[in-house]
Every structure is written in C-alpha cells, then in structure tokens.
Design goal:
The protein has 167 residues and is α+β, with helices and mostly antiparallel strands. The chain has helices at residues 3-27, 31-34, 47-50, 59-67, 144-162, and strands at residues 38-45, 55-58, 75-88, 91-104, 108-123, 126-141. Helix content is 37%, strand content 43%.
Length: 167
C-alpha cells in the first residue's frame, strides 16, 4: 500500500470513528468527549424537523444545550447506518441514515428517522464536525417528551456524573 493510500485509509477510519463516537457519546451523556468531535464554531441544521433557521454556535454552547435535554431521557439511541464518506483534501462529507429513539418512562417515546449530513474539516491533524444537518423523513411517538426530558436533564446528568469513575 502506498503512503498516500495508507493516509487516505487512516483519514477514512478516523472520520468513521468520529461519526460512531458522535452517537455513542451523545447517548451516554459524555459531553466532555462529544464536544471534542466538533470545531470551535459549529453549524447545526435541524430545520427539517423543527423549522426555524440553522444555528451557528460554539461547541461548548452546543454541549450545554444537549446536556440540557439528552440526560433527561431514560434512554436515547442514535442508530447511524449506511455511512458514506467523501474526502476532498482537508474537508470531508459524510452521509448516513439515522434513527434517533428517545424513551421517557410512562411519559412516552419519540423517534425520528431520516439522514444526517456531517461536514468535517481536518484541524491540526484531527477530523472534526463543522456542520451537522438532519434531513427528517418520519417520526413516531410524542414530541412532548422533549419538554419533559428537559425538566429532568440537570438532575439526571448530575446522577450520571456521580457514577463516573475517576482514575
């Protein structure tokens, strides 16, 4: 394998790792690690699901927003599949299918499916997400669980952090 081919294969592996880690870290409230997957400024476009406009914010602010919601659920599962990577120099585009399931006890369940588009850039030798776009196709369940989870998020995140192993 040539050096160029090995480099491209390594880039692809790292990009796939970023996408896989995105889902795992989000579902496990590992925001300190999840935030590292994003550039300092990141654009999030969930307009296909929620309307409005895409937002550009800091990775820290984004993690604060997600920490104010995701830990409030009993369980979330972001199942990413059918991943396709296109690398062009120091930029990459990843498309994938996504089914995001959100469970909240007797309050209900909400699931949204569609596709993700991740735009990544290579920053100091590491691939990071600069833009994330959700193209929603279908949803089931009750969106009201989002507000309910938001009310529980801080308390539940603190409970998870208390179980964190420090070594």
């Amino acid at each position: 394998m040539t050096s160029l081919a090995a480099h491209k294969e390594k880039d692809q592996a790292e990009i796939l790792n970023v996408v896989d880690s995105f889902a795992v870290f989000a579902d496990n409230s590992a925001f300190e690690y999840l935030g590292q997957l994003f550039t300092d400024k990141v654009t999030i476009d969930y307009t296909s699901a929620f309307g409005g406009e895409p937002t550009t914010t800091s990775n820290v602010n984004l993690m604060q927003q997600w920490a104010g919601l995701l830990p409030g659920f009993d369980l979330t599962r972001h199942a990413i599949s059918n991943i396709k990577v296109n690398i062009s120099g120091q930029q990459a585009t990843v498309t994938s299918d996504i089914t995001a399931s959100h469970y909240l006890g007797d309050k209900g369940f909400w699931q949204i499916s569609g596709s993700y588009r991740f735009d990544l850039v290579n920053v100091d030798g590491h691939w990071q997400i600069s833009q994330l776009t959700l193209l929603a196709k279908s949803e089931t369940g009750n969106r009201d669980v989002l507000a309910e989870a938001g009310k529980l998020a801080a308390q539940r995140l603190n409970q998870k952090l208390e179980r964190k192993i420090n070594y």
